[in-house]
Amino acid sequence: MDAEDDWESSSGEVTDTDQFNDEDFYSTSACLSKLQFRSDVSKAKWNVEMGMAEVIEKKGKMWITTGIVRNGKTFCLIEETLFLAEIGALLVMDDNDECLALKDIYKKISEERNGCSWELFEVYKHLKSLGYVVGRHGVPWSIKGVKNNSKPCSSQGTIQNNRVEGAEENGITCAVQMLSNLQVDELRLNFDVYLPNSKFRKSSPGDPAFLLCLVRGSPPAKAKSEVLERQCGGIPLKLCHVDHGRVSFFSFKRVELPILP
After folding, report:
1. Residue 177 confidence class, pLDDT cut points 50, 70, 90
2. How far is CA 52 from its chain centroid?
3. Rounded CA gap, 123 and 120, in Å?
4. What is the dihedral of CA 200, 201, 202, 206, to 10 degrees?
5. Of residues 210, 58, 56, the one with CA closest to residue 133
6. In the chain, N or C terminus with fewer CB closer than 10 Å?
7. Does the pLDDT at position 239 exceed 70?
């Protein structure tokens, strides 16, 4: 009896941004951020070599589910940095202690040098706006979390986790290497997604609700999707696609075909 893979899908609009393609996008997003006044604004300093922002002043409860912890310090990946900056929750400073404009952070995303593309950012933003806890796959929330997790989700995660365990002595060198080695266009697991949870702990996050893989163009071949599923270690896999700001989610459903006479 044969089996086929059927597509299930759901989608949502990302209304704040469409694509990084003109100066109007810069000005519109900048104005949006300025209108969102907050009393709990945190501060971070962008480190070009690291490709991350080091948080130097934390305010608010958002840090329970945002940022990775290394050697007692909190760092924001590029997608986290831009998301917080857009909602007015984070001021990002450069090496001269001058505040980076949103257009400067948009440019960093468009360069795709830090393991994140515009499509991935739109997916991250969409899920975070819905309340999900979202982390970069293969980048542990904390070193303690790696040591407590005896069941890595994938072979890629195993290699990366082993590297990160040794980073306790060398600061965040290993985390930087992980980000620089990521190929944005590669078909791979991108995000670990957890359901909204007020008791979430970076040191013991548990298994994600599902793992997410960004797909460009046509759905992946059956062989490739099966490889991804094996890397998930039993955790549900969802695929996502972004088209002009519209984020769609897909999953494979295995069905049994009846035997014809």
Report:
1. low
2. 13
3. 5
4. -70
5. 210
6. C
7. yes
Give the chain's radius of gyration (CA, Å).
Answer: 19
Please provide the DSSP assignment of 81-103 as one string.
HHHHHHTT-EEEE-TTSPBPPHH
User: What dihedral angle (degrees, nearest 10) is formed by the CA atoms of 68, 70, 75, 76?
Assistant: -30
List pLDDT tens digits, range 109-156: 999 888 899 999 999 999 999 999 999 999 999 987 565 554 444 444
The token pair at 97 is 């202690």
CATH number assigned to the domain comprising residue 151: 3.40.1350.150
On the question of pLDDT at 12 being above 80, the answer is: no
**Per the domain annotation, does 79 fall within a domain?**
yes
In the chain, the amino acid numbered 195 is L
Residue 101 dihedral angles phi and psi, to the nearest 5°: -75, 160
Task: Give me the amino acid identity at 83.
Answer: F
Q: How distant, in Å, are the alpha carbons of 25, 54, 164, 192, 228 from that of 42?
A: 24, 11, 26, 24, 37
Domain of 17, in residue numbers: 3-256
Confidence label for 39 from pLDDT (cuts 50, 70 and 90): confident
Residue 261 lies in a domain: no
Which of 150 and 192 is assigned the larger pLDDT? 192
What six digits make up the tokens of 237? 């896999």
Number of domains in the chain: 1
pLDDT at 28 over 70: no
